[in-house]
Amino acid sequence: MNELHDLLARATDRVDNPRLEHEALQVARRRRTRRRGAAAAAVASALVVTVVVGVQGVDRVSSPQPAAPTHTTPTSPLDPTPPPSPSHPDGVGKVWPVWDPREVDQLPAAPDDVAPTLPRTIAPPPSSPQLSDSPIDVAVVAVEQDGVAQVLGPGGEWRTVPITGRYPTLSLSPRGTRLAISYYLDGEPSEHDYGVTVHDLASGAAAHFPVPDGFVPRDDTGWSFYDEDTLLLVTGTQAYTVDARTGETAETTAPSGMEATLDPEGNWLTSADFDQPNILTDHAGGTPRDVSMDRTGRLSRLQANEDTVVGTTYDDQQFSVVVADRETLTPQHRLPVLDPEANYSNWGLGTLALADDGTVLLRVAKIGRRGGEGSRVVAWKPSTGELSIVSTTALPIEALVVYAAGALRESR
Description:
globular; 412 residues
């Protein structure tokens, strides 16, 4: 049984972990059609990675509505004359040789100036001081495993945060000053509290915010951070912003599509689903702007800054990570990825951040070949093709590992 099938088997075991079932159902709804490869034959709706990381977002209240894998022998990522993409013989931009992510542990360590506050190894101790007794200013990583939640400060200090319900979901604010915890189950399902508890890391204080009046729970209901001081509650197309200090709430709407992301300035980008025209909608400047994704392929796992969009795609081509100009979505760099049994395109590889210096941070699951477990944060420099390991964890897939986006974007 391959890794994807193993995930699905555990996800459908309600007694073992109903949160995984909930997450599997969410991701299944995000990808409707056109999944190719062995994994597609195993499930009616193929999957895209959203486990742990990400939730569909909403508009800023004060602004207007914006709203069979190719098996190629990998070569060196520094090959100066890589072959052109077989799916885009007339493509634009640099196409690097195919990378086999099963060999991730053969990569060198990343330079110290890449995500410098992220530790080389994420290995939470068996116990750590309570956050309420010993606050820290910020956290770069939050972890939950076996009912224990801990946050990690940039100096290597771990703190424990209380868990009061079953199957928690964690979210760190962009700069890591706050941790939000909500639950898949809190008591019996009929008594489920869809509210959120926010921990202020600098003071150790916690506040619980209930769902707003009029809230209707759905399968994709989830909390995340819109910015450092604002929470998002998304439930279908209904959404709310909640002030993380006061609890003040405003209703808005969630952007529709396969996936949505915020750039560092709070502007939404939304990638259309497969049953819609191949369009990315960019809300920068307050007026939604549609850009064709024909040259990049339909993008998911989006990240963006002022000038650049990064995402993954398997749309009529080899599974790849693509860097494109934000204005026109002209491809600039492409990293084709070997994708045995569709494990990486379905769940094993995704984008985490687009760093200030243009480095792309990827989360890569450790799958097959040389054993090992857990995941790696991998840095890809599109301009040179260099790949390197920023951080490693042996925590299993059932564990939650979430990152403060600001810590990933930072460079020296």
